[in-house]
Amino acid sequence: MSSLNGSICNFIPSHYGSEAYIEVLCCGYSSKNQVKKMEAGHHDLSKVTVVGDPQLLQRKIDAVRLAGTAKLQVIADFDGTLTKYFVNGRRGRSSHGILKQGNAEYDDKRQALYEYYHPLEFSPTIPIEEKTKLMEEWWGKTHNLLIEGGLTYDAIKESVASSAIAFRDGVVELFEFLEERDIPVLIFSAGLADIIEEVLRQKVHRSFKNVKIVSNRMVFDNDGRLISFKGKLIHSLNKNEHALEMAAPVHDHFGDGDGPINDNASVKKRTNVLLLGDHLGDLGMSDGLDYETRISAGFLNDNIENNLSNYRKAFDVVYLNDAPMWGVVKLVSQMCSTDKMSGNDKSSGITGGAGAAKAPGSGSTGSVSGFDSGATKDGTMKAPGQDVRISREGFEKNPAGYFRDLQKK
């Protein structure tokens, strides 16, 4: 325990409370317990939030805010990032894992492919060029089995309806916040776009004009039977902005006649990026984009003790234990702030002012736990979902409470 304690204290701001943090990590504080507390309304983000370099994150937030929302886009992984890792106390299913063809023979064949190729995907000894060919081979064989096995769209709907898949608390509110500000969201997935759309349809029950899905898209005949796949094959090693031509707006499939807010060319001009992922490989989703500033948020859902060091080095901010999306909602509100800054009086308050806690070993102040607001007393922001302005400080203290109250109106 002492060696682990030392490693934590090298990068956790002192007001986090290293003892509380170690409790989350090592003392029987399970992910399921954390989820239950948060679902009960106790959104103490400080205990599930890790920032390795507070000053760097602050500089990035400032740069994005100064550039304005017209330069910002959000890139998000789907499985384990937008969706929960645990559902009802058990491991949630992925968008690929929930699919049942209605043909047991072909379901078994796809499972056999998974058992063969999945270890190769994460093998540290296979060169990336060879691994890329193996992934193309795996995805191609899987897609062929779906066609040969007679997959229907009705089977997709039934698979989603009976699945253990759910969005993180705060995802819908995040999408709404971004939609109001015309900020595009690209959902990158090596899975199946049609399944992701059906999950959105059944679990969220609404569309978002700013959301596009970059994933493998199916082509069905008039009887709803899968006959082919459209365009470029997207697998786990090439899901990035090079595949942007595969992007399609979700609302086109919800009967919304309005056009997308941003075409693909204009998305590429948005050179500030908020990237959301749950694997280190997800950081490659922004490859192909000549970005100016990228803020990366990683969800470390399991095996925290072994992975935290690598995650906090790779991501600007890490959320632990299957945390809800409220931390990202707060982060986005800071990135979209129009409050003027002067010196240390910054609306996000990560670098803080007088009296801010000092990050051990950094030699500088840093108020990071939950991104406590340091906005001026009269700092306001546009209220999400309303044509009024509200206190930014009040919103950032409890975004979940704001949206909960809004739904009651």
TrEMBL record:
What Pfam families does the database record attribute to this sequence? Answer: UMPH-1
**GO cellular component terms, A-Z:** cytoplasm
The answer to keyword Magnesium applying to this record is yes
Q: Which reaction does it catalyse?
A: a ribonucleoside 5'-phosphate + H2O = a ribonucleoside + phosphate
Task: Tell me which InterPro entries the record gives.
Answer: HAD-like_sf (IPR036412), HAD_sf (IPR023214), Pyrimidine_nucleotidase_eu (IPR006434)
What are its E.C. numbers?
3.1.3.5
An annotated GO BP? nucleotide metabolic process
Give the residues annotated as coiled coil: none
The UniProt regions of compositional bias labelled Low complexity, in chain numbering, are 356-367
Q: Which domain of life is it from?
A: Eukaryota
What SUPFAM superfamilies does the record point to? HAD-like (SSF56784)
Q: Which GO terms describe its molecular function?
A: 5'-nucleotidase activity; magnesium ion binding; nucleotide binding
Q: Where is this region: Disordered?
A: 340-409
- Family to which this protein belongs: Belongs to the pyrimidine 5'-nucleotidase family.
Q: What name does this protein carry?
A: 5'-nucleotidase
Specify the species. Populus deltoides (Eastern poplar)
Q: What is the lineage of its organism?
A: Eukaryota, Viridiplantae, Streptophyta, Embryophyta, Tracheophyta
